[in-house]
Each structure stands twice: as C-alpha cells, then as structure tokens.
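WP5 quarterly update. Target: DUF2252 domain-containing protein. Source organism: Flavobacterium akiainvivens. Length: 455 aa.
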Amino acid sequence: MENATKNSTAVSSKQTRHKIGKAQKKLFPIASLNIIESACRPNPINILKESSKGRIQSLLPLRYERMSASPFSFYRGSAAVMASDLSLATSTNLKLQVCGDCHLLNFGGFATPERKLVFDINDFDETSTAPWEWDVKRLAASFAIAGRDKGFTDLQCSEAAWTAVNSYRKHMAEYAEMSALQIWYAQISLKELIHSGKIKEMKQFDPKEIKKAIKRIPHQKEFAKLTHNKQGRPVIKDNPPLIFHVPKEKQAGFFAEAENAYCRYLRSLSHDKKTLLSRYKLQDVAMKVVGVGSVGMFCGVLLLMSATGDPLFLQFKEAHQSVLEPYAGKSKFKYHGQRVVAGQKLIQSATDIFLGWTTDVAGRQFYIRQLRDAKVKPSLDTMDHDIFLRYAKSCGWALSRAHARTGDAAILNGYMGQDDLFEDTIAKYAMSYANQNEKDYALLLHVLKQGLLPT
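Structure tokens (predicted):
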C-alpha cells in the first residue's frame, strides 16, 4: 500500500507539472513564437562591432573574412545578433541552463572518461540561464540556413528544421516520464545512434573509425601533427595566422604568465585531477585561432609532457560575457570561465576530466579543456538530404536531454503538447529567420566592400 501511495503521488506530481506547462501555453501561445520583431531591432553590424571589443585587433579581419564566406558562416559568428532578436520576441518565460549558441555544428561525438563515445552538445561559450525555446529556435534556424547553403529547396530546409524540433518534443515527452536521477544518468551513445539508423552513411561516424579513435593513445596523433623538435625538445609548430607564438622578445614573459595562469587553473580542479596533472610539466604555449565566432578571442594551446615523454594538449579559450546575459540576466558566477565550466557540467552528459577555469594578470578569463579527445565532428559537405534529416533528429534528441537536466521536462512537455503545432510553428520561424539572416549577411558584405570593417 505504501508503494502504491508513492506511485500515486509521483503520477499526481507529473500531472500537476504538466498542467503548469499547459497553463503557460495559454499565457504565451505557441503561435506567438513564430513572430520576428524586425521594426525595432538594432543594426546587426553595430552588434558585431560591439562584440569585437576586447578581441585581438589583428585577428578581426580574419573573423569578418570567415563570417563573409556564406550566410551560414555569418550565422555561426553572429550569436550576439540572434540573442538580441530573441530578446525582442515573445518568450515562454520558462528558464533553464541553455547552450546559448545551439547551431547544428556545435554537436558531435566525443569520448567520456570511461572511453565510451557519446553524442552531445560540445560548445558552451555562451551558456547561461535563459528561456529554453531560445536554444530550440537557434537550432531550427541553423538547419534552415545550412540547408539553403547546401542547395536544398525551402521545403527541404523547412522539413529539416521541423524534424529537429519534432525530435526535441518527442524525446522531452519521454524524459517527462523519468526521474531526475534517470535523466541525469542518460547518455546518447554513438553506437546507439548508428544502430537506430538516426545516423548512418556518414564517414565521421563509421564504427571502425570510432573504434580506432577510442583505442588510439591519447594525444599521440596531435603530437605528431602539431609539434616539431627544436634544440632537443618538442615545441608547437607555427602555422600563422592559425597557430603562432608571440614575438621572440615577449616569449619568456608570456610563458611565465602562462605558468601562473596554469597554476590558478589547477585550483579549480578536484584533487584526483590535480594528482594526475602533477605527472606532467608545461612545455610550450602558443596562440590558436578557433571557430568563427571565437576568432579574435585570446585562445591557444598548452603542450604538457610527462617524465616518460607522453604528451598532453590542453586548449585555453578566453571567456567573455555570454551574449544572452544582457537580455536574460547576469550570470551568478564572478568569472566567465567559471560560468562556462559550470554550465557545461550542467548540460553535458559527460565532461572532459580536465575542464577547469582560470584568469591572467591582465584580467582575462579563460576555461581550459583537452584540445581533442577522440572527437567526431559532423561534416555538412558529406550530407545528402536524408542524412541531413537523420542528423536533425540526433541534434533534437541531444538538446532535449540537455534541457531536461536543469529544466522540468513535464512542464515543457505540457507546454509543447502532443500534436505537431510546436514544430510547425518553430519551423516557420526558422525559415523566416533564414530570410532575415540573409539580409544581415548582405549588409555585412556591403559594409566590408565599403571598408567600414577591417579586412
């Protein structure tokens, strides 16, 4: 009888939370999520200029060059523009820990500490507490925009956006039936995705290659590719403007400061990770240009070597204020590197064992993780429309699992409902935003041609 009472209470609780979601839908109808406020939106170029402040000025031309490659490249680099747009639109007023830059290339496979390959979100520079649908909208719009870049029809692009959101809604309904602990333990294995048919015929997710990635000695491949011998010791190869050392006259001071920042980073780790890293010594440090949106940030690579000659590469990335904070509220963390680390641990099913944060004497804030760890990156170039749709399902699933960890899946399930209205609405929004993004992209090309931005 006692168990029956507990089960009855659990069911009642889920029903109550489901009703809360339905009530929220009456206050903020799903149909209102399709509206894009274009009349009062700020100039997107001004937002880009503002987001360029504090970056390495000599790298800004490379940032704008990468953004000007295509409308999708522009979209990847303009998370701040979309954050502004999302803030002007109707919101459900339901907040949780979001990714903040949830586009389709910020997903992929990576190895857990147990050497199991999982599929998940893998970029958290903009993570913050914000309305949950902001992530869903950015993901859906990324499929619409990337699909156009690949030459798909608008119907096919809309179908991809719809598929991602449909997968999100259906998996959220599944998480709504789970306990908090079950959700927290949930992972999406690449093996499961492959066998389910949701990802197939993509060379990046070939089972044999995945097996090789897991068995490969960590960082040996990167060591052969990224280093060379200099005066009897391994150092990182320069490959400007993508990888480079600071000028020779500044190297000694730069290395000393890197050592100090590294020591501060160690304080953010648990005792067991500190013990593991005590087997390694910092050998070299170089700057490294990464991504599209991060170009110009103070980012780089640390090479560490053990006494037995084993390499370890750590990547440091400068952390600025999340693009969502001006609109969704300031982070509760004092340091943005700390914000990124805490957000990633909340959202990801398994985080890098070396994930931590630090600061330097100039006041810059960073987070640190392994450079690569059996990462499996998707490639848009190899996707036909069928694979594109399968990948959309996988991304929707991964985002749903991430949101269920810090949000209330039953409330979100109650809001989205059991029919297709939610995905129909967000797919329409995605196509409308793809049109807006193309206008913003054309404006970028115009100002670059006029010489109003560094090139």
